[in-house]
Amino acid sequence: MPKLTLQFQKKPFTAITVQIDRLTGEQYDGDDMTGIVDLIEVIRLQTEGPPEAARAIRKKLKYGNVHKQLRALTILDGLIENAGPQFQRAFADEPLLERLRVAATDSLSDPEVRSKCSVLFRQWAASYSKTPGMERIANLHKQLPQHKKATRQESSRVLKESEPGENEDPFGHRVSVSGGGGPMQNLRTPSTTATPASSFTGGPSLTPYGQTSAKPSKPHKKSKASKPFNLEKEKPQILQTIASSSVASTNLMNTLKLINRESRRVSEDQETVNRFETCKLLRRQVLRYI
Question: How far from chain centre, in Å, is Cα 107?
């Protein structure tokens, strides 16, 4: 009888997977970019480099603990920003995208992992929406749950607190007077409920102290108030500014790591200076919202 043999296609396991295993170890902090440059060089040497890197990162997101998941997201972000167009066009397969969606929205995911996914998704949407091959990565932010905060009725609350109570006088005091031999009566300061003067007979017409000499106060002119801040309207711009700032600061840090300080000064590197100036401009934009 002929023997039936089943052939299983083996997934490549090279230095790429080994390096990603090492970079997700406990000895690295969550946002440490150390080793990303070496990993990029290894990926560029192999034709199947981007798919293997994507598979290794997906496994860390699926089976790793919280620290490994955070490190996997940091490594993925570093590769997207620095590995070049060839990597960007080849790495984003559907299994990785689905695992990113699960990590960002599943209630079983750690809150810290969900928070980092949310930041990265919005950052990628702001940076790569028009980059060829990155359309699906840029659209991941649309998978995030939308939480619309209810507008608080501040104006109605202020009005309610400013209204006088049932037993309170609008102006806060009363004046007791005696008309001739009549009994003592309470005379309120002028208001809609003040006692008419015609009700007092047989006595002099009395006016509360300071009423005749006081001139009616002129209403204060309303100062031109500045335009109120609308969070819902400014929210997209705020998110885009924060995402651009994060990208610019990461690019600056990566550029600084590539400079050999022993042979060259940072101020002599034009690319580093340009990235620094970009960070300064974005810092001013961020300060507008603080």
Answer: 20
- Give the Cα separation of 85 and 224 in Å (integer): 52
| DSSP sequence for 37-81 | HHHHHHHHTSTTHHHHHHHHHHHHHHHS-HHHHHHHHHHHHHHHH
CA angle 124, 126, 132 (to 5 degrees): 70
SS3 188: strand
* C-alpha–C-alpha distance, residues 22 and 17, integer Å: 9
Report the C-alpha gap between 251 and 255 in whole angstroms.
6
Q: What is the pLDDT of residues 90-126, one digit of tens each?
A: 888 899 999 999 999 988 889 999 999 999 999 999 9
φ, ψ dihedrals at 178, nearest 5°: -125, 120
- Looking at the chain, list the stretches that DSSP marks H as alpha helix, in order from N- to C-terminal side: 15-23, 36-44, 49-63, 66-82, 85-90, 94-105, 111-128, 135-138, 154-162, 231-257, 270-287
Q: Which residue has the higher pLDDT, 161 or 71?
A: 71
- For the entire predicted model, the pTM comes to 0.49
Q: Looking at the chain, how many residues does it have?
A: 290
Query: Do 266 and 259 meet the contact criterion of CB atoms below 8 Å apart?
Result: yes
Supply the DSSP symbol for 197: G
Amino acid identity, position 175: V
CB proximity list for 76: less than 8 A, separation 6 or greater: 57
Q: Please provide the distance, in angstroms rounded to a whole number, between the alpha carbons at the two ends of the chain.
A: 79
Rounded Cα distance, 156 and 164, in Å:
15
Q: What does the radius of gyration of the chain's CA atoms come to, in whole angstroms?
A: 35
